[in-house]
Amino acid sequence: MKQFLKLVCLLLSALGCSQLYAQRPAGKQGQAAIDSMLLVLPNSQEDTNKVRLLNNLSFTYFAINPDEGIKYGQQALALATRLDWKKGMAKADNCIGVNYHFKSDFTRALEYYFKTLKIAEETGDKVGVANVSGNIGGVYERQGDYAKALEYCFKALKIDEETGDKKTIADFTGNIGGIYQLQGEYAKALEYYFKALKIDEEIGNEYGLATSTGNIGQVYGEMKNYTGSLEYLERSLKIAENIGYKYLVAGNLYTIGSSYVSLVNDTARGNPVVAAKEIAVAKYKPNGTIPTGKAALLRNAIDYLQRGLAIAKEMQAMDIMRDCYKKLAEAYTLNGDYKKALESTNDYLVIKDSVFSKDKDEQIMKLTLKNEYDRQHLADSLKVSAKEKITAIELKRQRGYTYMGIAGILLLAGFSFFIIKERGRSEKERKKSDDLLLNILPAEVATELKINGTTTAKHYDNVTVLFTDFVDFTSAGGRMSPQALIDELHTCFKAFDDITGKYQIEKIKTIGDAYLAVSGLPTPDPKHAENCVRAATEINAFMHNRQAKLGNNTFEIRIGIHSGSVVAGIVGVKKFAYDVWGDTVNTAARMEQSGESGKVNISETTYELVKDKFICENRGEIEVKGKGMLKMYFVNG
After folding, report:
1. What Å distances lie between residue 556 and 9, 306, 313, 347, 636, CA to CA?
2. Domain for residue 450, yes or no?
3. The CATH number of the domain where 347 resides is what?
4. Residues 101 and 143 in one domain
5. pLDDT bucket at 253, cuts 50 / 70 / 90
6. Number of domains in the chain
7. How far apart are CA 135 and CA 431, in angstroms?
8. Rounded to whole angstroms, how far apart are CA atoms 70 and 62?
9. Which end of the chain is more exposed for a tag (fewer CB within 10 A), N or C?
10. pTM: predicted TM-score of the whole model, two decimal places
11. Can you give the three-state secondary structure of 45-102, one letter per residue?
């Protein structure tokens, strides 16, 4: 598994937060620390000390029972809010985020991390900024955005090197090693991991030791040095079990089981397995020799994977459950137990589809955009406030010299010019932020959001919904390089944006290779159906021309259209994204799915609105999933 132990390492930045956000009782860790805190909690006064205690509980639970961690974190947040104690609120937000992170609910984790980051930046808390930046880097690492993950982790490391905090230096050094490992840069990964291990040994950080040794073991496994890999993984497992670090215990069990499966595969394929050799700083001895023979290796693999799965289920650690099921399916297949292999595959797909979906990625992208927008507005407001304070002081000082003559008047004029200039510059910066918001929301909705802080969902009776989808998009990935695929997708969607914009059609979103737009909202348009069909035919013509030029280096398209009523607006207050709902949207999607490549397929409702404007081909009634038989028409001109 190429991502598990980096996640642990990245989340050890959260352990770095223990100094600022969740001090645990000295000498106690894991369940022992929880038990001692639960004894004190009932007699605690409703003050900042109780907020600290609740945050300690929340944070200590993250690797044992994240649901309990979230519960105590919410209690801490509620009390800190009542006390108007920002530092306590930031601690609570961070602890809640860490617990969601360990549940693999990355959208909720990022939501709370950004709240923590905002408070830390507002209050000038550099250490807090460093700690939560590492956590944010962990989310981006899980999403495969390595550039952004490194950006946040190097930011955190720089701050900690300035403060000289060895523990968090070790944590973030390991974080960076993890990101390099994900990119296959094993030499750099080991360089950073061994640096982290050395610091953890110096300060006696058992959590860090467990993670660093596990990470090193995983890299050696990917390099096919299985002796070295199991040596470090077993050491990491032992430390994690001793300190009650259940998440890492489950992860190590998975990784060891996965290593045995890899040994079986490498042996069967005749691939060379790296022999045991000297390992840098290797002072941990393996607990035993690696068994030989396919049957023995698979027994070990299944045993470790089942043990890891049991602990992951107990914790609801969805990412480890997903990977254990996937690797168990492979192990059972190699063992000839196809029934269990199928069961494990089904369990894997259920978790994969529910937790690690495109929708989750889109939510994270929206959160990222919102965070950038919020930070820009904060910077603008702080800048304006500072400039205005300076100007006010200077103007007050100049009033005292007014009677000294023309020199004072000139100075006053100069400061007035300074105010105008600075405010003008600030307005330009604010315009950039507003433009970003308008790139996410319709102008009418953006204005309502800025004025009121919220928006109201609205019902629209007469709109037309357009859906497009590229045919066999997955197969295109096999014949095009990843960069070429993304570039072509961007070129096509940009053209679609230009076309829909020409007809005042509101683009709602893209979902993978699908494109959704609506005509007739938020501003009503009596020609909503006509304009939508015109845009669809232009999109179709664009793709025809592109295919003629590029052949297999572009895509074929299906387009579906339906008219009716929808509800449109923003759901929630934390993650703003304009969307549409209703049966009209579902029917438009069915029109696209029931269409043909290179055709614009419209419903009977839309046909009745545009039949005098376009040449349409009656397709008759076609069965549609969940809707029965529906009349459809191709637009031919």
Report:
1. 43, 45, 43, 34, 17
2. no
3. 1.25.40.10
4. yes
5. very high
6. 4
7. 31
8. 8
9. C
10. 0.44
11. CCCHHHHHHHHHHHHHHCCCCHHHHHHHHHHHHHHHHHCCCHHHHHHHHHHHHHHHHH
